[in-house]
Amino acid sequence: MDYQYPMEMDWTTEEIVDVIRFFEAVEKAYESKIQKVELMSAYRRFKEIVPGKADEKKYTDEFQQSSGYSAFLVMKKAKEMSDGESVSMK
Fold it and tell me: Which InterPro entries match (predicted)?
């Protein structure tokens, strides 16, 4: 991994950890698989920290530019799946 996670300096340490946890969940969907419920939990917490659509797009676009992983596509796929399923972008 040769990239940094997008974040704001005014976030608390807990918020930074939770945002990173969401991006790690997106990575996991691309690199192996992740349970939908785990991914959705990470996303819900991410949205508590980044509630606005414009800010969400800004951070997920920054993440995609540096990693090549699309949080948008992962979340789109996850929303189409049943709760007991695993999300995999492979």
Answer: BH2638-like_sf (IPR023324), UPF0223 (IPR007920)
